[in-house]
Amino acid sequence: MFSYKERSKIKQLMTNYHFDVVVIGGGITGAGIALDAASRGLSVALVEMQDFSAGTSSRSTKLVHGGLRYLKNLEVDVVAEVGREREIVYNNGVHITTPEHMLLPLYKKGTYGPLATSIALKVYDRLARVKKEERRTMLTKKQTLQLEPLLKEQDMRGGGYYVEYRTDDARLTIEVLKKAVAYQALCLNYAKAQNFMYDKKRRVVGVEVLDKLTDDTFTISATQVINAAGPWVDDVRKRDQVANNKQLRLTKGVHIVIDQTVFPLRQAIYFDTPDGRMVFAIPRDGKAYVGTTDTFYDKDPMHPIATREDVSYLLETIHFMFPQVRVGHEDVESTWAGVRPLIYEEGKDPSEISRKDEIWVAKSGLMTIAGGKLTGYRQMAEDIVDQVVRTHKFKHAQKCATKHLPLSGANGINAKNFQGYIGNKAKEGERLGISYEAAKQLVATYGTNVDDVFRYLRNVQEGALPRCLHARLLYAIYHEMVYTPSDFFIRRTGMLYFDIATVVKYKDAVLDIMAKELSYTDKQRQQFNEELIIALHEAKYPQ
């Protein structure tokens, strides 16, 4: 029930049944709510107007991190909550979350001094309940430069060394959704909730949905409707007949990707910039990516792009912190831009607005959840589903189970056995005719779901697509609700950001296979090809 082939059946079930909960929004917050509610035994339907995670949840810094910088703003409660959640997210999905040692270089007249940093990291360790082997270490200047020789040496006083977690944000969202579907949640992409349904007391009792692939509409009735639409939260609330006085303020964050042959970064770095902001530089799969910017944004949240000015700012931060590195606009392979839905606070700069989440309940009964961070998605879901259960006194609802619930692809694997599992499964992949390294990459990406990927691998021949890529494409079509090449290259594989050359090389072959498997019309084939070309252009940004 998580394939386009089942789309008609999913729509029919959504129309025929009354649900305990309908969720509007298929980003990480909506996905988390669907999983929490479904795993408690509630009936759940979720609709997303684009592809799943197509908004903010595929455009983050791709870190499950505790937000050390929020200590600077004295947001102790935010640090405590998301810090503790890091470990939970990691344990529940070791195949999509990886420990990443982070180096915080310290300089004279920098934002953080050695003593203040030592204290801040110690407080961070305590608030986040960091396990002993991952607690912070303070380093000398020599030790800091040994970890990353490219760092600016002038005025350096040492460094702080601590652990965060790197993830693939879009794949995390997909794995959460697949787990929700395993608990009988019905989830549909390209389905826009365009109007609310009301009872005689003017209470929201469902949604009218537009299927954007077929242009037909259908209705879903529910006891509770939850608005988790991210940057579109206010747009959804405007469709309700009674809204409250809270509102969002959108900010844009941009990242750039540079090949490590040009920017040979060894170590993930978290550093302050001349204008007092904090920026990450992170090595990943032969690339180094740098971000993020933080500027107010009032344009279409569906298509934020990196401007030349955005990229120039990030290049300047590289020149500032890594003076030996000579990079220019021509070295930027790809970019991505995302919009953060933050709760409006008058008079505050973008970086000062709190990342804390809030739940709002309108007179109509519509519940809205806004704000928050990727890291805190599970706790946010628990909080709002708790409120739903209390409000409606659902006697069939069980207690929240997501704190120790493995995501899709993580059954039976954990931090202790995962590397051994990768090694054993990679040998199995070798026997199927692919390289050991390629097989390792598949296992590390799909976890225990790699068995399904391997089944496709057995049945495909080397042709216009390499066998690995072909198997991944078929798995995405039949197990991950992929419908367009952009879905596949951006949100199921991340290749548009981290391997854009492969996208350019194989985009036509992927389009051919998808057109055949999904029975595209000529119009759809042209439309989806144009969408991918536009996405490629946006990733390259105007140089």
TrEMBL record:
A Pfam family recorded for this sequence: DAO
UniProt EC number: 1.1.5.3
Native species: Metalysinibacillus jejuensis
SUPFAM superfamilies for the chain: FAD-linked reductases, C-terminal domain, FAD/NAD(P)-binding domain
Protein name according to UniProt: Glycerol-3-phosphate dehydrogenase
GO cellular component, one term: glycerol-3-phosphate dehydrogenase (FAD) complex
A GO BP entry: glycerol metabolic process
Domain FAD dependent oxidoreductase: 20-377
The organism's taxonomic lineage, starting at the top: Bacteria, Bacillati, Bacillota, Bacilli, Bacillales
Residue ranges of every copy of the Alpha-glycerophosphate oxidase C-terminal domain listed in the record: 400-525
